[in-house]
Structures are given as structure tokens and as C-alpha cells.
Amino acid sequence: MGIGVVVIGRNEGLRLERCLTSLVGAAQQVVYVDSGSTDGSVQLARRLGVEVVELNMTIPFTAARARNEGFACVQRLLPSMRYVQFVDGDCEVVASWLPQARAFLDAQPSVAVVCGRRRERFPQHSIYNLMCDLEWDTPVGEAKACGGDALMRADAFAAVSGFRADLIAGEEPELCVRLRAKGWKVWRLPEEMTLHDATMTRFGQWWRRTLRGGYAFAEGAFLHGAAPEQHWLRESRRAWFWGLGIPLATVFLCMLLGGYGLLLLLIYPLQVVRLARRGKGPTRENWLLAFFLVLGKFPEMLGQVKFLLNRFGAGKSALIEYK
């Protein structure tokens, strides 16, 4: 079979048990990489017969570093590994996924990464969970990037030295940029892949997750924003335009025209209307999603500011977590 699995997590509790149970027996080797759990996750994994890597938490933690260390462990335990499945500890892997993904890679030697449909387990619990579920419904076929759950060719992953361990967000798309630069393809299948449990029910969680996305946009554009890739350059520019450009222009107009300058702010509700009318779901969902898409440009902009402060100022890179 030649499939190894790397699961990463911290304090995932029942979510981790679901994840590991869905994988035991489905692959030749499963490794769980723990980043300082205090809820018995390590003991749970070992009871299920899963190999555990406990990260040295005196070294700055990133998900990218955890996946790299997990890959090194699987490679050591399973030298014959052809494919490696990366999965987050809050995801349950659908039973049919690994056989289908493996068969696809066997038949498509030019493809290095294959992913499927990641679904939110409880999209009805909050608008934030629903937005996650819709965010992951990406087009089927050749793609530019994958998310945290994907099956990859082990040799291709190793050839580009894996994930950039210093990235605190956006490490999967960045890896895909480097793989595609080497001539590999990334593919999205229509098959069900994982069930994710975001447990995102508060506005503050959504804000921090969106801020992290803005940080990833900025760092991705910094690393690969030049032509021809222009990685996340458009997303970064949109965040600056809506999150900072319009407010600054409004201040400038108010200095020239007084209160009439505030009329420029009408561009925000107009954008909400435009996006809501383009939506394909139920009317209420379309309006809520449009509102949060527009509002999200502000934390995205702040995430980019955070990146710039960390990169060029006295700031220090640290995880941006929402759980």
C-alpha cells in the first residue's frame, strides 16, 4: 500500500479520537504529532496503537514544523512509503478517501498532491462554521493549492524539502507553489475526504481566523508575489483597498468636503448588496455571507500589518489561533 499518515493536533479531545479511529487500519503507518496537549491526547493516541511525536515546545511551534517532523518519523518507520496523507487532528477521514486518492495518484504520474471535499461537521451551529464549509467547496480539477488535508507523493514532498517550517499560516499553498514550479500538478477530486470540526461559534474566533488569513496573504505575496506566480497578490491588494484605502480616502474627503465625505462609506453596503445578489444559496445565507466577506477585509488588512511589523519591524512571529 505504501501510505503513511501524519496527524497534527493539540488538545483536540474527542475530535482527535474520531480522527485517529478513522485512520487506524487504513494506512500502513500513522503518526500523531502533538504540540503540548494537556488533555491526554498523547495517551489516547498510544492506546490506539499510533506512533507519537511530542514536539519540543521550546522551539517556536508552527503547523508546518509539526507536519515536517511527522513526515520524517513516518519515513523512518516506513521506508517504502510512496504517499503521505496529511490531516489535522480535528478532522475525521472518510473511509473511501485513501483508496480513491491513491488510485488517482497511481493513474496520474504528473500529479503530486490530491485533495477532496473537506466538509464542516456542524455547519448549522454558526454562521462561522457555515462559512468554513463554503470556503472549502473549491472547484474540481487541476488546482493551484490544497489545504491541510491532502495526499501527496512522498518523493515529491521530500524533493522540495517539505513545508517551510517558519510559516505560521498558509504553508500548504506555499508548498504547492514550489511543487508546481518543479512541474508537478495539484488536483482536487469531487470525492468526500474529511469531516472537520471547527467549533467556531464566536465572533472573536472568526476575527482571529480571518486575521490569520490576511497574514498568510501578505507572507505568500512577499515570497511568491512576483510574476508569473503572483501568489496571493490580488487577495493582498483587495485587503489593503477595502480595509485601509477606503477609510483613508474617506478621511481625506471629509477634510475637503466636510460631512459629505462620509458618503464614500456607502461603498461598503453597496458591495454587500452586490455580493449577496450574486450568491447561489438561500437568501438569508447570501446576505450574511456577503456581510462577513466585506467585514473580513478589515482583519485581513490587520493581518497584513502584523506581517509587515514582524518582517520589517520589532515584531515577533507567533501563532494566530482561533480555538
Cα Rg: 21 Å
Shape by Cα distribution: globular
The name of the CATH superfamily of the largest domain reads: Spore Coat Polysaccharide Biosynthesis Protein SpsA, Chain A
Tell me the number of strands: 9
**Overall pLDDT metric:** 94
CATH architecture group name of the largest domain: Alpha-Beta Complex
pLDDT < 50 runs, ≥5 residues = none
Quaternary structure of the protein: single chain
Main beta sheet? 9 strands, mixed
Gap between N and C termini: 35 Å
Summarize the structure.
This protein has 323 residues and is α/β, with parallel strands linked by helices. It contains twelve helices and nine strands.
Reconstruct the topology from this structure.
Elements: E1 3-9, H1 14-23, E2 29-34, H2 41-47, E3 51-54, H3 63-77, E4 83-88, E5 91-93, H4 97-107, E6 111-120, H5 127-135, E7 141-143, E8 150-153, H6 154-159, H7 171-181, E9 185-196, H8 203-224, H9 233-257, H10 267-278, H11 283-295, H12 297-312
Parallel strand pairs: 1-2, 1-4, 2-3, 6-9
Antiparallel strand pairs: 4-8, 5-9, 6-8, 7-9
Molecular structure report:
It is a single chain. With 323 residues, this protein is of the alpha/beta class. The chain has 2 domains: 198 residues, Spore Coat Polysaccharide Biosynthesis Protein SpsA, Chain A; 122 residues, no CATH class. Strands 1, 2, 3, 4, 5, 6, 7, 8 and 9 form a 9-stranded mixed β-sheet that branches. Helix 8 crosses helix 12 and helix 9 crosses helix 12.
